[in-house]
């Protein structure tokens, strides 16, 4: 498909617009229209030399490639427990062996501590294990029960 087939140049009083004949979106320059047309055609001319992933825009490829290079240039820090690692492989092994044990079975969110995962699970199950002995209201978290007691029963002052 030739890009010029989808090009329509319009003249207005103050400036020229380039319009996409597929979705009628307008652009100030032909290069912006050409870049836009790749969305319709699926043409991805920019390829990553490390993993062969393709992109419609060069800036997206550059951003993607910076992730590859950062694996070698930066200290690796676990986003769950903030432990430092010398390389990406050590970080990956750490996450697989440690944090997968503490992953939520419903949404795969990982936690540094099992207790935090268990507290998180209540969001999915709706379980409310903490009961107010004054009025019988139930809460999923003990800290919410304490706030309730202070606010409504003046307990804990």
Automatic annotation (TrEMBL):
<feature type="domain" description="C2H2-type">
    <location>
        <begin position="46"/>
        <end position="73"/>
    </location>
</feature>
<dbReference type="InterPro" id="IPR050331">
    <property type="entry name" value="Zinc_finger"/>
</dbReference>
<keyword id="KW-0539">Nucleus</keyword>
<feature type="domain" description="C2H2-type">
    <location>
        <begin position="130"/>
        <end position="153"/>
    </location>
</feature>
<protein>
    <recommendedName>
        <fullName>C2H2-type domain-containing protein</fullName>
    </recommendedName>
</protein>
<dbReference type="GO" id="GO:0008270">
    <property type="term" value="F:zinc ion binding"/>
</dbReference>
<keyword id="KW-0862">Zinc</keyword>
<keyword id="KW-0479">Metal-binding</keyword>
<feature type="domain" description="C2H2-type">
    <location>
        <begin position="18"/>
        <end position="45"/>
    </location>
</feature>
<dbReference type="InterPro" id="IPR036236">
    <property type="entry name" value="Znf_C2H2_sf"/>
</dbReference>
<dbReference type="GO" id="GO:0005634">
    <property type="term" value="C:nucleus"/>
</dbReference>
<keyword id="KW-0677">Repeat</keyword>
<feature type="domain" description="C2H2-type">
    <location>
        <begin position="102"/>
        <end position="129"/>
    </location>
</feature>
<dbReference type="Pfam" id="PF00096">
    <property type="entry name" value="zf-C2H2"/>
</dbReference>
<keyword id="KW-0863">Zinc-finger</keyword>
<dbReference type="InterPro" id="IPR013087">
    <property type="entry name" value="Znf_C2H2_type"/>
</dbReference>
